[in-house]
Amino acid sequence: MRKTLTFQYTFHQMAYWATAAGVVSFATAFLLQKGFAASTVGILLASGNLLSCVFQPVLAAWADRTGGNVLKWMTAALTAVSAACFASIQLLPMPESVFGFVYLLGIFTFDAMNPLLNALNVSYMTSGYTINYGLSRGLGSLAYAFAALGIGKIMSRFGASWMIWISLGLLVFNAAMALSYPSLRPLEGGEKRENHSCSVPVFFRRYKWYCISLFGVLLLGMFHAMTENYLIEIVTPLGGDSGTVGVALFIATAIEALVLVYLDKIRKFLSDNWLLKLAGLSFLLKSVLFLLAGNVMTIYAIQLLQATSYTFLSPIQMYYANNKVGAADMVKGQAFSTAAYTLGCAAGNFAGGQFLSVFGVRIMLLAGVAMAAAGTLVFFLTVEKKDD
Questions:
Q1: Residues paired with residue 130 on neighbouring β-strands, in sequence order
Q2: How much is the pTM?
Q3: pLDDT digit string, tens, across residues 243-290
Q4: Half-sphere exposure (Cβ direction) of 272: Cα atoms closer than 13 Å
Q5: Whether 103 contacts 222, CB under 8 Å
Q6: Are the C-beta atoms of residues 193 and 318 closer than 8 Å to each other?
Q7: pLDDT tens digits for 101-115?
Q8: CB atoms within 10 A of CB 312
Q9: Residues 85, 105: contact at Cβ < 8 Å?
Q10: Is the Cβ–Cβ distance between 104 and 51 less than 8 Å?
Q11: Helix extents (H) in 325-360
Q12: How far apart are CA 144 and CA 150, in angstroms?
């Protein structure tokens, strides 16, 4: 009888995404309250994204070569470094430049855990354990929503520093959950992987169609980040305000969590390749509806498409990587997938700001249609291709 790790993995997902609600989602508010200029905050956060894109595949390559139980220990170590960074900015006096660098390092090490969290799921599943990934990821989304709601209220009442204290507690729980996974036998962990895991340059040649398909992930990430982070600019001309944005994001998160719980059942009827194509088509439909939206109620209706856009794209990336990439390169496959989306988000945030500043909301939304269309086209052209 196969052993289940759904309990541990679910709480790990919940702890991770609840932490993300603090240190990532409220990073701008926290740094602004600490006296940083808005331009400096943008540079810090973009730099953190770029560092993640560069170093996640490097960490993954090392994990692939080492094999065994390195994933859980690497996850715990990154958690400890991230916690140390956030604790130091609370407890130690430091100049603004050092403060900003340490916060950037904390976010970078936290982001680096994301592909490892996915890789843990794949590693234990292939070693004979069962994990209900859809349930775990769905409850992770719910944890994010409620943590964001609670942290926002606490910050507004007691100050920005409370976000860090809450996040530190959650990071300790992250580390505990990482270390709670059972040890894998060396044979199951993959002593043989050392001889077959490829370098990063070879990875691009060995899995060329997979890597090209990640360009679609990047483009859809650009569109998603741009419309989500600048949603206030989209709804304001329609008579909306920050309250409208809050309702819209709650609708998206609620429908996302509901669908994720049933994701394993959905995958029995549709292949991962088709789910990615459906995600692309849903993003494309969202982009067109955003462009045509004439009132706030339309924006709320558009958020229901979260059920088949981001909700399919985010978790299916994990399964898709596992199917397209060899076991010896599995962690790198997860890392490149996460890095592509992260880079897309950084590019979308930058592009959205530029479009808004120079051309206005409508041109930004037209650019969003182009991003979504291009990303969908890449999926239709590549996801069915097989690398030799």
A1: 4
A2: 0.74
A3: 677 678 778 888 888 888 888 889 889 999 999 999 999 999 999 999
A4: 14
A5: no
A6: no
A7: 999 899 888 888 887
A8: 28
A9: yes
A10: yes
A11: 330-358
A12: 10
